[in-house]
Write a structure and sequence with these properties.
It is a single chain. Strands 1-2-3-4 form a four-stranded antiparallel β-sheet. It contains six helices and four strands, in the order βαβββααααα. The protein is α+β, with helices and mostly antiparallel strands. Strand 3 (about 50-65) and strand 4 form a beta hairpin. It has one domain.
């Protein structure tokens, strides 16, 4: 299920290169950086302004999809595209922080459930039976991008630093095409924004 926010806001990704992530982590300081965390990227489509949000596990507990889990909370905000423009109180107040926390909490639970399901399938020796990617004409778009996600996520869960390469191997497509497919699979909700890999791209500045 895609992660959605109230208009005019939308998630545009969370994939950051290791060196970029290291620089960002130095902004909030060293305290608690070993906690489970991620960086989410959101954009206001009306103003074009992009925000990087550092998200961590909070102390509040909620029930999501029948599971009791800690809520993910926004702990730091970075404005990468300010370019000398003032960041106003209105900019910050307009951020749908509660909606962001709720959506990322829900998405993390669903991702955990999907990850467990994939692990169980691998335990039953089904890893080599991933859906084929070389006959897109025989699939609907949703079937195809779900299959792309299956290859991408199996590589990601196995610790592959560049999951998109598995998509290239399975399909025979160029890496650029595989990156585009992975981005579309992520947009459709088949790859969670909390799953990172080199196939992601930085958001465009507004």
């Amino acid at each position: 299920m895609p992660v959605t926010l109230p208009a005019p806001w939308q998630f545009v990704g969370s994939v950051l290169a290791p060196d970029e992530l290291h620089r960002l982590e130095s902004i909030p300081g060293s305290s608690h950086i070993d906690d489970p965390r991620q960086w989410a990227v959101v954009r206001n489509d009306e103003t074009g302004r992009t925000f990087l949000l550092r998200v961590q596990l909070g102390t509040e507990i909620a029930e999501v999809a029948g599971q009791t889990v800690p809520v993910r909370i926004v702990t730091s905000i970075v404005v990468p595209d300010a370019d000398g423009r003032e960041v106003t109180g209105s900019d910050l107040r307009s951020l749908p922080v509660k909606a962001i926390s709720a959506e990322l909490t829900r998405e993390s639970v669903e991702y955990g459930m999907r990850k467990m399901s994939r692990w169980l399938r691998r335990r039953h020796h089904e890893r080599n039976e991933l859906p084929a990617l070389d006959n897109r004409a025989g699939m609907t778009d949703d079937e195809f991008f779900a299959a792309v996600a299956e290859h991408w996520l199996n590589a990601h869960d196995a610790g592959d630093p560049s999951p998109v390469d598995r998509v290239v191997e399975a399909s025979g497509a160029s890496k650029r095409t595989a990156q585009r497919w992975a981005a579309e699979a992520r947009r459709r909700g088949y790859i969670p924004i909390s799953a990172t890999g080199k196939s992601g791209r930085r958001p465009k500045r507004g």
